[in-house]
């Protein structure tokens, strides 16, 4: 019995090194973007993935999983192994789409906020061939027409605020939903959709080249590179047109603390890099880094705002 006990201890001793886990991370990390390639969210994610990979010492691989306004990719991350090797880069649709769909395949509590990236102006734009140069002219031109407007996902800011504009001005605009900004922009440029809210990151080149014309923007501070474009609030629209969304990074809620800490540090370092900040300025994206606790409070505040706005507009989508 004594010899067998000694053998058991020896076997355990030999097995222990084989069972010990290597420090995190020891393999590539998958960053899920729940919207298609080529849109603003995809561009932002790729901007931070590379410097994060340098800090973490492992590749950070972008995986686009679009559908249902971002809910498909987000739910996939929720259901992934909470080991730090599957993370989520998302925009405010993270909250917006489930509220509008009245369907929650996940809740914010299913995720651990890693950090806030920032926000971006969202100008309301028309095709260049439409004979208007101001929002007032657009409203007059649109009266009596049954216009479609594009949205980069159902339940998004672009959806809610275009509908609010339509309702406030007594227009008859109808939403046409896309799986992301890039396909929406193609239909606008192709003449199939006359107007939509765009991001400066995903559509800035088309805006600056005059292929689409910005008439007014959400938010309070305007577009840094185009100060001549008024905000909706400055034009007398309700204060809620001044609310900005968020962009940020998340992990499944049960991700181990050491892995969360490593991700938080790598993301924070990426957001401090001069080359990243310079690229954001070029895209009219406003960096607003927040750590996990502050970002969680920001999300909670935004969720309260968004639920109230959706209730006020009576905005729902069947899906």
UniProtKB/TrEMBL annotation:
The keyword Nuclease does not apply. Pfam families: TctC. Residues 1-20 form the signal peptide. Keywords: Signal. It comes from the Bacteria. Belongs to the UPF0065 (bug) family. This is Tripartite tricarboxylate transporter substrate binding protein.
């Amino acid at each position: 019995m004594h010899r067998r006990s000694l053998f058991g201890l020896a076997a355990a001793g030999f097995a222990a090194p084989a069972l010990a886990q290597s420090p995190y991370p020891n393999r590539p990390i998958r960053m899920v973007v729940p919207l298609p390639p080529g849109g603003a969210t995809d561009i932002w994610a790729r901007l931070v993935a590379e410097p994060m990979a340098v800090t973490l010492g492992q590749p950070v691989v972008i995986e686009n999983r679009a559908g249902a306004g971002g809910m498909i990719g987000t739910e996939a991350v929720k259901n992934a192994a909470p080991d730090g090797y599957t993370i989520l880069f998302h925009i405010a649709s993270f909250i917006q789409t489930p509220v509008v769909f009245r369907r929650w395949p996940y809740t914010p509590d299913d995720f651990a906020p890693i950090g806030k990236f920032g926000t971006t102006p969202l100008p309301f734009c028309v095709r260049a061939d439409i004979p208007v140069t101001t929002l007032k002219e657009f409203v007059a031109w649109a009266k009596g027409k049954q216009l479609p407007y594009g949205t980069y996902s159902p339940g998004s800011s672009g959806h809610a605020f275009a509908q609010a504009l339509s309702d406030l001005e007594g227009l008859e605009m109808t939403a046409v939903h896309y799986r992301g900004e890039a396909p929406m922009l193609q239909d606008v440029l192709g003449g199939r959709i006359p107007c939509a809210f765009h991001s400066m990151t995903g559509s800035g080149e088309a805006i600056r080249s005059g292929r689409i014309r910005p008439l007014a923007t959400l938010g309070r501070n305007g577009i840094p590179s185009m100060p001549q474009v008024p905000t909706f609030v400055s034009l007398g629209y309700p204060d809620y047109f001044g609310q900005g969304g968020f962009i940020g990074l998340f992990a499944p809620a049960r991700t181990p603390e050491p892995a969360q800490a490593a991700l938080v540090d790598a993301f924070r370092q990426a957001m401090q890099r001069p080359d990243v900040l310079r690229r954001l300025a070029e895209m009219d994206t406003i960096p607003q880094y927040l750590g996990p606790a502050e970002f969680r409070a920001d999300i909670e505040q935004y969720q309260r705002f968004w639920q109230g706005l959706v209730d006020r507009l009576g905005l729902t989508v069947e899906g």
